[in-house]
Specification:
Elements: H1 3-24, H2 28-35, E1 41-45, E2 61-66, H3 69-78, E3 83-86, H4 92-95, E4 101-107, H5 115-128, E5 129-138, H6 161-166, E6 170-177, H7 192-201, H8 203-207, E7 213-221
Parallel strand pairs: 1-2, 1-4, 2-3, 4-5
Antiparallel strand pairs: 5-7, 6-7
């Protein structure tokens, strides 16, 4: 294929991606942008060292909390949040007042707690948030052990779409068909680029069928 034809093909594919594909299957970041479009303040619980908040286009005042000081330090170096607290997630109920943030987010956090602790966290998040709570987690239990010398990285529980729906959350399936991915959300087989493409192509299917998705984005309007 000539260079000119290749450039034309890239333009066509880019147009299809922006005008058709993204309407069928918005990215997780776009979902988050839409969900926070009426929010001015966000509490990011278990923000880690590189929160999804850093990729938001709209400026929102955010506070990040994490129990691991090294993660707080790394996030501060990147300037992701406006304020930080080194704090156990299960203590947010003592630190922050009722209805003190437009939204409260737990992104890749709840699976690091036991089931009982998870329910307690959800209750606290719903008390602190004025408008909505957003929870992002694997679909079911996903084995993960300690790494980077951080004991908080261990997974202790799994959460399903039906469980979250029973708690009043709207659940969106993300990251493609569940059997394609495994530890650390990586595709299971090689060549990885091929299987990542296959996973990507399954995203429109699992979006409205979260039971089959690898990960869940759960949103509750209060």
């Amino acid at each position: 294929m000539s260079g000119r034809k290749l450039r034309v093909l890239k333009v066509i594919l880019r147009w299809i991606y922006r005008n058709i594909w993204l309407k069928i299957s918005p990215s997780v970041l776009e979902e988050l942008e839409r969900t926070l479009n009426d929010c001015n303040t966000v509490l990011d619980v278990g923000c880690g060292s590189s929160s999804v908040i850093r990729s938001l286009k709209n400026k929102i005042y955010t506070i990040g909390i994490d129990a691991w000081q090294q993660s707080i330090n790394a996030s501060k170096d990147k300037g992701i949040h406006d304020e930080y607290y080194t704090l156990d997630a299960l203590r947010i109920g003592n630190k922050f007042a009722e209805n003190s943030f437009d939204s409260v987010i737990a992104w890749d956090l709840i699976e690091h707690l036991t089931k009982e602790e998870g329910y307690k966290l959800i209750a606290m998040m719903e008390r602190i948030a004025r408008r909505r709570v957003i929870i992002y987690t694997p679909n079911g239990f996903l084995l993960q052990e300690e790494y980077d010398y951080n004991p908080w990285q261990v997974h202790k529980s799994g959460w399903t779409a039906s469980e979250m729906e029973c708690l009043g959350y709207k659940v969106i399936g993300v990251s493609g068909w569940k059997p394609l991915r495994g530890k650390y959300s990586l595709v299971k087989w090689r060549p990885r680029r091929f299987w990542e493409t296959i996973s990507y192509l399954t995203e429109p299917f699992v979006r409205h069928r979260p039971t089959y998705a690898f990960q869940l984005m759960c949103v509750k309007n209060l």
